[in-house]
Design a protein that fits this description.
By secondary structure, the protein is of the alpha/beta class. The chain has 6 domains: 2-102, Rossmann fold (3-Layer(aba) Sandwich); 114-202, BRCT domain (Rossmann fold); 220-328 and 441-534, BRCT domain (Rossmann fold, 3-Layer(aba) Sandwich), CATH 3.40.50.10190; 342-438, Rossmann fold (3-Layer(aba) Sandwich), CATH 3.40.50; 617-727, 3-Layer(aba) Sandwich (Rossmann fold); 731-857, BRCT domain (Rossmann fold, 3-Layer(aba) Sandwich). Helices cover 34% and strands 11% of the residues. A 4-stranded parallel sheet has the order 2-1-3-4. A 4-stranded parallel sheet has the order 6-5-7-8. Strands 10-9-11-12 form a 4-stranded parallel sheet, sandwiched between helices. α12 packs across α14 (401-410). It is elongated. It starts with a helix and ends in a 21-residue tail after the last helix.
Length: 858
C-alpha cells in the first residue's frame, strides 16, 4: 500500500510542459501526459506554433529537441529540459531520475547511451565510464533491457555471448569508438567499431572510406539562398509563423518582386509583417550590424537570415537560428587571423562541401577548388587522400572541419595544434558530423551587440528623461546621435568583451520599449539613411584597456611568429617558396598532378583517376642538404630540382631528425651539418645531387662519399669516426647536461639549442636571472637545474668576450656556486667541437675569462 502511494505521488511536485515535434506527435504526448497525471503531476501539452505558456510555471520541459523558442529562457531559469525517456526511467527507479542523463542538448552527445563493460583493462573501463557520464550517458554494471552498448575486445566474454545468444538489441563495440568520440567531442557512427568483425581491424590502410548522408545541413549550406522554398508538401497546414510578427530588414538587399513573394509565403504560414523592431518576434537580416539587429538581439528576439526563414517554411518547423552557423546573419568583418588564409577542401561531398565553402567565405578566408603550394590549410574529412599527402609534404596545416566551425562559432581563430582538430578516426568520414556546431550566444553578445552600448535597454531607460523631447514611434530607420555613433564605432573596432545582458535588463527593456529608440532633438542625420560607422577620434580609457588585454592574449602567437622569422634560412613551406611563379608549371610531366583537378569530378571519378595517374617512386633516401651553391639566389631552379629528385625517390627534408643522408660540398659548421651529425647519417658530397639530376636516375650514394682532409685537420676530428661514434651515442652524448647560452650569442640561441638537443642535452637562455626565460621553464629554479645536471660537477655558459656578455658572468658564477657546482664560461667552439667529433671535450680548454683575448671570438 505504501508503494502504491509512493507511485502516485512520484510527480506530485512536478508541472511539466510536453512539446510536440516531428519526433513527438500529439498522440504520444497525450500518453506521456497521462503517465504524469496518474502519478500526481500536472501537464501542459504545447503544440507549435501556438503561444508558449509562461515558462516559470513549469518544473520540467519534456522534448526530443532543443529547437523551441523558449529553450534559452528555460536554461536561464534553470528549468531542466528532458527527453520522454526521463519519465520511464523515473517510474522504473521510483524516484526522479537525473535530468542531465536525458537531456536533448546535442553537446551531451552520449545522453542516450547506456553502457556496460566486458573483459577490458580496468584503466580503460574507468576512462570509458567517466567519459560516458561526463557526456550525458549512463553506466550499468550488468546486462539489462536498458543497456545500449557493450564495450569489449572480443565476442568471447560472458556478456557478449549472452547478448548474441539471446539476440538482445545491444551493440558490441571496441573501446576505440568511445575514444574517438571523446577526442572529437562528437558522436560518430558505431559501424566501423562493431564486433564481431570491426571494419577498423580488417580494412587495409588504403581502402576507400564511405561517405554517408548528413541531415544536419539540409537547407543550411548557404547564408544567401538563391531560390524560394518549396512549401507544396506543407501547403495544407503551413502554420509555422502562426501568431508571430516578422520584420524584414532593409539590409537584405532584395528586389520588390522577391520581397513580395517572401511576404506572401509568410502570410501563407499565418505570420504577419511589421516594420517596428520592438513589436517583431523575428528579425530577418543579412548582417550583424544596424539598429534593428542590435535592438532585436538585446531584446532576446529571434534573429536570423533568409536561409533560416526558408528552412522554417520548407519544413514547417521552428528551429533556433543559433543551431546552424549559416542560419545567423554574417559579419562584414573577418575573423581575426583569417585574412589572407587560402583553404582547400578534401573528401567532403554534396551539401557538406557547399556548406564548408560558404563557411570559409564567411570567415574572410579564401576557398580554393584545387590544392596548390600557396594554400595555408587543408580541411579534410579523413586522412586517406592524395591531397592530404601533398599538403603534409608542403608544410600545410591539415585539420578537420571542427577547426573551421569552432573558429566561426567563437569568432576567434582556433589553434591547429588542438588534438580535436587533427584527429581522424581510421574508418570514419567526418562529413557525417558536419553542421553540428552551434553559435555561441555569449560571444555574439560581447562582440556584436554589447550591453554597454548607449542604445541598450538599460541605458535607454536611464536616459529616458533626456530623450523625452521626441514622441515619435520607434522605427528601425531612426537617425542616430553622435554619442551613439562614437560608442558603436569604438566597440566595433575593439574586441570588447562585455557582461551578458541580465534577465532583469531584458524585462525592463520590454516593459518600457516605447522609449527604447527615442532620439534626442539634436541629432545628425546621415545622407541616404545609412549609418555612420566612423569611430570616435579619441579612444576611451576602456578601449585602450581592451586593446591592451587583446594584445596580451595574442602575445604568445606574436612571439612564435617572430621566432619563426628568425629561423636560419628563413621560413619555407616544404622546400618551396610562395613567390615562385612556376611552382606548378615546371616539371608537370614528372610531379604528381594535384593542381589541375576539378574537385567535384575528382570525387566522382576517384577510382578511375587513381588508375590513370602515374604511380610515384617510393622514397628511398631522405636527404638533408647544406651549402649547395647552385641553388643560392635561384629559387626557381631549386624547386625544379627538388621535384626531379622526388621523382627519383629522393625526398629533400629540412629536419635533421628525418634525414638518412646528409649532402654538403665540404665539412661545414652550419646548423644543419652539425645537428645532423648526431643522428649518424650517411654523408655524401653534393656531387651526388648534381649527377643524379644530370643523369635523371637514382645513383648509388656510396659512390660519392664526402672527403675533406683539410677540414678534418683544421677541426681535429675524423668524419668517418664521428659517424660511427654518433651511432653508438644514439643522441645521448650530452644526456644530463644543462647548458646555458647568452641571449645575443652570435649565430642565434635557436641554433645552439638545436645542436644541444640533437645530442640529448637541454639548453636555456641566461639573462642574469635564476628563472629561465622560456615560458615552459619559467617556473624552474636552482633545484631543477641541479637535478638536470645530476652527476655533472660543471655547468657551462656559452658566451663571447663582448662587454654585454661579460657583464653577466659574475651573476652566473654566483648562481652556480650557490648550488655547489663549478661554473664554466666557454666559447661556442666547445659545443661545436663536441658535436662534430661526437666525443666530450674538457670545458676548461675553451674557458673565457676577463683576461681573455677579445679577438678570440672573431
Amino acid at each position: 500500500m505504501a508503494d502504491d502511494k509512493e507511485d502516485v505521488q512520484l510527480f506530485g511536485q512536478c508541472k511539466a510542459c510536453i512539446i510536440c515535434s516531428k519526433d513527438l506527435d500529439q498522440d504520444t504526448a497525450q500518453q506521456h501526459a497521462s503517465l504524469i497525471e496518474e502519478n500526481g503531476g500536472d501537464v501542459v501539452i504545447y503544440e507549435p506554433p501556438s503561444t508558449f505558456p509562461p515558462i516559470n510555471e513549469f518544473t520540467h520541459i519534456i522534448s526530443y529537441t532543443i529547437d523551441f523558442a523558449e529553450y534559452e529562457t528555460a536554461c536561464d531559469a534553470l528549468i531542466p529540459v528532458v527527453k520522454p525517456e526521463w519519465l520511464h526511467m523515473s517510474l522504473a527507479k521510483k524516484k526522479l531520475a537525473n535530468p542531465r542523463q536525458h537531456s536533448p542538448d546535442p553537446r551531451l552527445f552520449l545522453n542516450d547511451v547506456v553502457v556496460t563493460c566486458g573483459d577490458i583493462p580496468e584503466g580503460d573501463k574507468d576512462a570509458i565510464i567517466g567519459g560516458v557520464l561526463a557526456k550525458g550517458g549512463v553506466y550499468n554494471a550488468r546486462i539489462s533491457g536498458l543497456v545500449t552498448h557493450l564495450v569489449d575486445l572480443t565476442v568471447d566474454s560472458d556478456k557478449a555471448r549472452l547478448i548474441l545468444t539471446k539476440k538482445l538489441n545491444v551493440k558490441i563495440v571496441l573501446p576505440h569508438w568511445f575514444d574517438d568520440c571523446l577526442k572529437l567531442g562528437r558522436r560518430i557512427d558505431e559501424r566501423p567499431y562493431t564486433l564481431p568483425d570491426p571494419e577498423i581491424l580488417r580494412s587495409p590502410p588504403g581502402a576507400p572510406i564511405r561517405s554517408s548522408e548528413n541531415k544536419d545541413i539540409v537547407g543550411a549550406s548557404t547564408p544567401e539562398p538563391s531560390v524560394l522554398p518549396n512549401t507544396a508538401k506543407n501547403q495544407h497546414k503551413l502554420d509555422v509563423f502562426e501568431g508571430k510578427q516578422i520584420m524584414l530588414s532593409p539590409d537584405l538587399g532584395i528586389g520588390p518582386h522577391l520581397k513580395s513573394s517572401i511576404e506572401e509565403l509568410i502570410e501563407q504560414a499565418k505570420g504577419t509583417l511589421t516594420s517596428d523592431v520592438t513589436k517583431a518576434d523575428m528579425l530577418i537580416c543579412r548582417y550583424r550590424e544596424g539598429v534593428a539587429y542590435r535592438v532585436a538581439s538585446r531584446l532576446n528576439k529571434d534573429v536570423g537570415n533568409l536561409s533560416w526563414l526558408y528552412h522554417m517554411l520548407t519544413f514547417n518547423t521552428w528551429t533556433s537560428p543559433l543551431r546552424r552557423l549559416l542560419h545567423y546573419p554574417v559579419s562584414r568583418t573577418k575573423i581575426p587571423g583569417f585574412e589572407g588564409l587560402r583553404i582547400s577542401l578534401s573528401n567532403y561531398v554534396g551539401e557538406a562541401r557547399a556548406y564548408l565553402e560558404n563557411l570559409i567565405a564567411a570567415t574572410g578566408a579564401e576557398c580554393t577548388k584545387t590544392l596548390k603550394q600557396d594554400n595555408t590549410h587543408l580541411i579534410t574529412a579523413h586522412g586517406n587522400s592524395e591531397k592530404c599527402t601533398a599538403a603534409r609534404e608542403w608544410g600545410m596545416d591539415v585539420v578537420n572541419h571542427l577547426w573551421l566551425e569552432e573558429s566561426y562559432s567563437k569568432w576567434k581563430k582556433q589553434s591547429v595544434t588542438d588534438p580535436r582538430y587533427t584527429h581522424f578516426p581510421k574508418r570514419t568520414n567526418l562529413g557525417e558530423i558536419v553542421g553540428q556546431t552551434r553559435l555561441d550566444k555569449t560571444v555574439l553578445e560581447s562582440l556584436f551587440f554589447p550591453s554597454n552600448d548607449p542604445q541598450s535597454p538599460r541605458n535607454a531607460i536611464q536616459n529616458k528623461g533626456q530623450n523625452s523631447t521626441t514622441d515619435a514611434k520607434p522605427s528601425v530607420m531612426l537617425p542616430r546621435t553622435e554619442k551613439t555613433t562614437k560608442s558603436e564605432g569604438s566597440s566595433r573596432d575593439t574586441d570588447n568583451a562585455t557582461p551578458r545582458t541580465t534577465e532583469k535588463t531584458r524585462r525592463i527593456g520590454v516593459m518600457d520599449n516605447v522609449q527604447l529608440l527615442t532620439t534626442p532633438a539634436r541629432s545628425r542625420i546621415v545622407a541616404g539613411g545609412k549609418e555612420n560607422d566612423t569611430p570616435s577620434s579619441t579612444s576611451s580609457r576602456k578601449s585602450k584597456e581592451t586593446a591592451a588585454a587583446r594584445l596580451q592574449e595574442i602575445a604568445p602567437d606574436i612571439a612564435l611568429y617572430e621566432k619563426e622569422m628568425k629561423r636560419v634560412g628563413g621560413v619555407i613551406y616544404g622546400g618551396r617558396r610562395k613567390t615562385d611563379e612556376d611552382r606548378i608549371s615546371i616539371g608537370t610531366k614528372k610531379r604528381r598532378s594535384v593542381e589541375p583537378l576539378d574537385e567535384n569530378r575528382d570525387e566522382e571519378n576517384a577510382t578511375d583517376s587513381k588508375r590513370q595517374k602515374k604511380s610515384r617512386c617510393p622514397v628511398s633516401i631522405c636527404l638533408l642538404i647544406t651549402g649547395y651553391q647552385k641553388w643560392v639566389q635561384n629559387p626557381k631552379k631549386e624547386d625544379a630540382d627538388k621535384r626531379q629528385l622526388r621523382e627519383l625517390g629522393i625526398m629533400v627534408v629540412q629536419d635533421a631528425r628525418k634525414c638518412t643522408h646528409l649532402a654538403a660540398p665540404s665539412i661545414l659548421r652550419t646548423p644543419k651539418f652539425v645537428s645532423a651529425l648526431a643522428y649518424g647519417p650517411a654523408i655524401v658530397s653534393t656531387d651526388f645531387i648534381t649527377q643524379c639530376l644530370k643523369k635523371d636516375e637514382l645513383l648509388d650514394p656510396s659512390a660519392f662519399p664526402l672527403q675533406d682532409k683539410a677540414s678534418e685537420e683544421k677541426f681535429g676530428f675524423s668524419l668517418a669516426e664521428a659517424t660511427i661514434k654518433a651511432k653508438r651515442n644514439k643522441n645521448k652524448l650530452l644526456d644530463g647536461y644543462r647548458i646555458y647560452c647568452v641571449e645575443s650569442i652570435r649565430g642565434g640561441f635557436d641554433t645552439f639549442k638545436s645542436i644541444v638537443e640533437a645530442n640529448g642535452g637541454k639548453c636555456a637562455i641566461f639573462r642574469g636571472r635564476i628563472t629561465l626565460a622560456s615560458p615552459a621553464e619559467d617556473s624552474e629554479d636552482d633545484d631543477d637545474m641541479n637535478a638536470s645536471n645530476k652527476g655533472r660537477s660543471e655547468i657551462c655558459l656559452l658566451s663571447s668576450q663582448t662587454p654585454d656578455h661579460s657583464k653577466l658572468w659574475p651573476r652566473f658564477r654566483q648562481m652556480v656556486y650557490d648550488i655547489g657546482r663549478t661554473p664554466r664560461i666557454v666559447h661556442v667552439d666547445w659545443l661545436l667541437d663536441i658535436a662534430m667529433s661526437q666525443e666530450l671535450h674538457r670545458a676548461e680548454e675553451y674557458e673565457l675569462s676577463e683576461d681573455s683575448n677579445p679577438q678570440a671570438d672573431h
